[in-house]
């Protein structure tokens, strides 16, 4: 099967996710052009890149000659057309709004070379629908990175109805080349694999909190020090195999019917959103962060995740 060698990537949108994604490509000798419709975001992206490169350098994760060389592999583009010039892959990382994504995909289809692969970092919108905005649906694919992209190993490859096998294989090769771990989502279902699993867990966590079964702290501790503790080593299906399918069968017969099945967001979440309690970014969510240094909190979490990454053998 013919695959494409990805040497140059354009990352479109440099908000929360774009800078880290650009960094990972650049760390693996891939030239990157970054573009954002908001020039301030491009400026901020440079600052984020500098800070994140120091973090991974301090953690001994740069096999290259250093941060400066990696920064130089990432070029700011003045326009969308400049960004995609000669790109083998264009990855859109713009807000999670279908109309914005289809409009951009249509424009990219007009200005990119015929072999350029168009990928979306959408968290769960339909790749098939995005592909329909182009005349190259076989070259449109989901490439779903997880936050923070400089750390989380997995990337979902999402097959739209028309995505070509050669494109899927190319993405698989690319993800391995940048030392990440590919998983293939064979059907373009809402939320793909990761968010379906994650949202099932979050829905139950919020329902338990809402019903007063446990505090937010104890619910999070149950995951961090309990079932989640083994997730880097054993997934849920491996866990069932370990426990025994007979046990799972018996427990699920009485438990499944009691699990939360609400279709929309829980009323407690709607109320918090209405009050502006949005979590870290507003200083209050399920926890109160008003007296905390949020930068230090996140820095500490990232340091621990980097340690885990090394310990688990993800760093080559
Ligand atoms: N934030 C996360 O944790 C996360 C994790 C995984 C996937 N994603 C997905 O990644 C995508 C981006 O998310 P984000 O959190 O980085 O968003 P964001 O809002 O932080 O950043 C989006 C950026 O895109 C820019 N932009 C908007 N329209 C544009 C256009 N037409 N051309 C160029 N730039 C444009 C904006 O100015 C902004 O800087 C979404 O699809 C989201 O679902 C986000």
Commentary on this structure:
- The protein is an alpha/beta fold.
- The protein folds into two domains: 8-185, NAD(P)-binding Rossmann-like Domain (Rossmann fold, 3-Layer(aba) Sandwich); 194-311, N-(1-d-carboxylethyl)-l-norvaline Dehydrogenase, domain 2, CATH 1.10.1040.
- The chain is built from 13 helices and eight strands.
- It has helices at 18-27, 39-58, 67-72, 80-84, 98-111, 127-131, 165-177, 194-210, 216-224, 236-243, 245-255, 267-275, 294-311; strands at 8-12, 31-35, 74-76, 89-92, 117-120, 140-145, 154-158, 181-185.
- The protein has an eight-stranded mixed β-sheet with strand order 3-2-1-4-5-6-7-8, with helices on both faces.
- β4, α5 and β5 (117-120) form a beta-alpha-beta unit.
- α10 crosses α11 (245-255).
- The longest helix is centred in the N-terminal third of the chain and has 20 residues, at 39-58.
- The two termini are 28 Å apart.
- The mean pLDDT is 95.
- The protein binds nicotinamide-adenine-dinucleotide.
The CATH architecture of the largest domain can be given as 3-Layer(aba) Sandwich
Number of domains: 2
Number of strands: 8
Largest sheet: 8 strands, mixed
Classified in CATH, the superfamily of the largest domain is: NAD(P)-binding Rossmann-like Domain
* Mean pLDDT reading: 95
- Beta percentage is 5-15%
| CATH top level class name of the largest domain | Alpha Beta
The CATH topology of the largest domain corresponds to: Rossmann fold
């Amino acid at each position: 099967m013919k695959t494409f060698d990805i040497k140059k990537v354009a990352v479109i949108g440099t908000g929360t996710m774009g800078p880290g994604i650009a960094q990972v490509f650049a760390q693996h000798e891939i030239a990157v052009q970054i573009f954002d419709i908001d020039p301030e975001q491009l400026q901020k992206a440079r600052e984020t890149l500098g800070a994140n490169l120091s973090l991974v350098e301090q953690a001994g994760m740069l096999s290259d000659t250093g941060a400066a060389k990696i920064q130089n592999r990432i070029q700011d583009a003045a326009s969308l057309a400049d960004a995609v010039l000669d790109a083998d892959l264009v990855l859109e990382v713009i807000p999670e709004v279908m109309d914005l994504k289809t409009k951009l995909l249509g424009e990219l289809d007009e200005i990119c070379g015929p072999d350029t692969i168009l990928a979306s970092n959408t968290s769960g919108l339909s790749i098939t629908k995005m592909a329909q905005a182009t005349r190259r649906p076989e070259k449109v694919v989901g490439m779903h990175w997880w936050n923070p992209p400089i750390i989380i190993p997995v990337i979902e490859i999402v097959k739209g109805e028309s995505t070509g096998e050669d494109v899927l294989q190319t993405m698989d090769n690319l993800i391995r080349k940048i030392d990440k771990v590919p998983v293939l989502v064979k059907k373009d279902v809402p939320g793909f694999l990761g968010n379906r699993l994650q949202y099932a867990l979050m829905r139950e966590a919020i329902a338990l909190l809402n019903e007063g079964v446990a505090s937010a702290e104890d619910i999070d501790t149950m995951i961090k020090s309990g079932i989640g503790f083994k997730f880097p080593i054993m997934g849920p299906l491996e866990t069932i195999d370990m426990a025994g399918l007979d046990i799972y069968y018996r427990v699920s017969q009485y438990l499944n019917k009691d699990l939360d099945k609400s279709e929309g967001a829980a009323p407690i979440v709607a109320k918090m959103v209405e009050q502006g309690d949005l979590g870290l970014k507003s200083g209050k969510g399920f926890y109160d962060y008003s007296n905390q240094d949020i930068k230090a909190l996140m820095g500490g979490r990232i340091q621990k995740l980097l340690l885990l990454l090394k310990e688990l053998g993800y760093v080559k």
